[in-house]
Write a structure and sequence with these properties.
alpha/beta; eight-stranded mixed beta sheet; two-stranded antiparallel sheet
Length: 400
């Protein structure tokens, strides 16, 4: 058996099921292991011969990292199955996979597995040889970030899965998505993972779940064009400039599929794909390239579609700064557009604290790039004055 030119006679499946003990548990992660253990190893690993590694409620992130590193170094295809819960580190705003001893937010950085550790180990593998299947619950702050930005692993990695918000109080979620996989396999069915994902997603729900389906199309084979991003015009949003073309054929453009996913409500999937393409552009063309800036702007608009104005504002300001760093003048339409969009998203913020945090950098940027809209500079300063005059406790939950 050969895939992408590589012998897959021998493969590896790594099963990780982890959740905190006690009150912090949001999902019965290990409850899926008996069902997966009943599946033929060759099916789990996607190879004729298989090595199965199982981690049930591990306690030490370094131990988990060592197992992941060993599995990533093995030849042949690698499939990871992860059941558990995700949390957000308050200091660095990084996603972590909780382990058995992750009991409080203050201990998260020392007792949980940083998601970027996993991404760093897998990125060294041959594109197309790695698949990750997840069934996870996200704690409230992690859920908000994941809905806007998705769950990113990187170039050439297939990702299928379900992430759900926290269950009601005193209830524990079930890894029903992975159990649906196991049930299908035990019945003798072995369809392509993309089709099995669709089957499981249709069976388990819930309606507000974040489903991820990032298949082989996430492996860029050639530079993609950077087409015009269609959004409404001012005063609500300025028209986006046509980003610079990289020279590839239009049929290779992944943007229509990404925007279709976003408009269908699959915001996390769309954001994950855009982040993958941004990473590819950074590696291919470098930081500050027009190709990388294009994908940064796509991510900014996806954050808008996901109703995350704070993140959208941050990304649009980053795009403006990147263009200015390329020596594009302040009156360049692309620079003005990025600042106008950042300004608009900042105006949509209903959290006074976040508005206060993002206001000063926007104010500085707006003074450098006043734009063509009369009164834009004064509008930022006026709202900042209102925010500064309103006590934080009194302004909570109200828009200035």
């Amino acid at each position: 058996m050969v895939i992408n030119g590589e012998d897959i006679g021998s493969g590896t499946a790594l099963l990780i099921a982890a959740a905190p003990a006690g009150k912090g548990c949001l999902i019965d992660a290990t409850g899926v292991l008996p069902a997966l253990a009943a599946v033929p190893p060759s099916v789990l690993a996607g190879a004729t011969a298989a090595t199965i590694v199982e981690l049930a409620d591990p306690t030490d992130p370094q131990t988990v990292l060592t197992r992941i590193r060993a599995a990533a170094a093995a030849p042949g295809p690698l499939t990871l199955y992860i059941a558990g819960q995700l949390h957000l580190d308050h200091k660095q705003r990084l996603i972590h996979l909780a382990l058995a001893r992750t009991t409080t937010p203050t201990t998260l950085r020392y007792t949980a597995l940083p998601w970027h550790w996993l991404a760093s180990e897998l990125k060294l593998r041959r594109p197309g040889s790695t698949t990750v299947v997840v069934d996870m619950v996200a704690a409230p702050e992690a859920w908000q970030q994941l809905r806007a930005e998705g769950l990113v692993l990187g170039y050439g990695i297939r990702v299928y899965g379900r992430i759900v918000p926290p269950p009601p109080r005193r209830r524990i979620a079930e890894p029903a998505y992975l159990k649906a996989f196991a049930t299908a396999w035990r019945s003798g069915l072995n369809p392509p993972l993309a089709r099995l994902h669709e089957h499981a997603a249709a069976q388990v729900g819930p309606d507000d779940a974040l489903f991820l389906s990032i298949g082989d199309s996430s492996v860029p084979s050639a530079p993609s064009p950077a087409p015009h991003v269609q959004v409404p015009g001012l005063p609500h949003q300025p028209p986006a400039p046509a980003a610079e073309n990289t020279g590839a054929a239009a049929e290779e453009d992944p943007l229509p599929a990404i925007l279709a996913a976003a408009h269908a409500g699959r915001n996390g999937e769309a954001a994950s794909l855009a982040a993958i393409w941004e990473g590819w552009a950074l590696r291919t063309y470098g930081t500050g390239s027009v190709q990388a800036i294009h994908w940064l702007e796509v991510r900014a608009d996806l954050a808008r579609l996901a109703d995350d104005p704070a993140r959208s504002c941050e990304l649009w300001m980053a795009a403006a700064d990147a263009r200015l760093a390329r020596q594009q003048p302040p009156d360049d339409p692309a620079v003005e557009s990025a600042v106008d969009r950042a300004h608009h998203q900042w105006q949509q913020l209903r959290d006074p604290q976040r508005a206060r945090e993002l206001g000063p950098p926007l104010d500085a940027l707006r003074h450098h790039v006043p734009g063509r809209r009369p009164g834009a500079v004064e509008a930022v300063r006026h709202r900042l004055e209102l925010l500064d005059a309103t006590p934080p406790a009194a302004s909570r939950g109200a828009a200035p």
